[in-house]
Design a protein that fits this description.
With 143 residues, the protein is an all-beta fold. The chain contains no helices and ten strands. The strands form two sheets. Strands 2, 3, 5, 6, 7, 8 and 10 form a seven-stranded mixed sheet that branches. A three-stranded mixed sheet has the order 4-1-9, with no helix packed on it.
Length: 143
């Protein structure tokens, strides 16, 4: 049997404190939905999501994603006590891991709006039990 895999929510969260001279921004995050994964395949399983940032004035920003249930370099989804490894990337080739505030690996932009795709990947070869796997990742906008 196959497990349904879904990164439950990229929770739009804490933004850096802004002074009156800085922009005020809103963050909207669409989850990465991996769909149904075949655990016996050695192929990677990819999914995409989106982070949208809308500000009331043009400014320079960086966007960071928390480690969720693992580390930035080895994120993990859970279904009960079962664990599945995955990661999130800022490029379609899935070579640039999207990091958190501590490591500074997050895309930067300047302007009033940004729609940033999130590229997810579950490495192949993980023989896990069927279930609904999820993780919570916090989006932080720093300016």
């Amino acid at each position: 049997m196959w497990g349904k895999l879904h990164l439950a929510a990229l929770t739009a969260a804490a933004m850096s404190a802004a002074t009156a001279a800085e922009a005020a921004c809103a963050v909207d995050a669409q989850p990465v939905n991996f769909g149904v994964h075949q655990p016996l395949t050695t192929d990677h399983h990819d999914g995409t999501g989106l982070v949208s940032v809308t500000c009331d004035a043009s400014a320079s920003f960086s966007v960071h994603l928390s480690a969720g249930g693992g580390t930035v370099d080895d994120r993990r989804m859970n279904s009960g006590s079962d664990v599945m490894r995955y990661n999130l990337y800022s490029n379609a080739a899935r070579t640039l891991i999207w990091g958190d505030l501590a490591d500074g690996r997050g895309p930067s932009f300047t302007g009033k709006t940004a729609n940033l795709p999130i590229y997810g990947r579950i490495p192949g070869g993980q023989n896990v039990d069927a279930g609904s796997y999820s993780d919570i990742v916090v989006v932080t906008v720093q300016y």
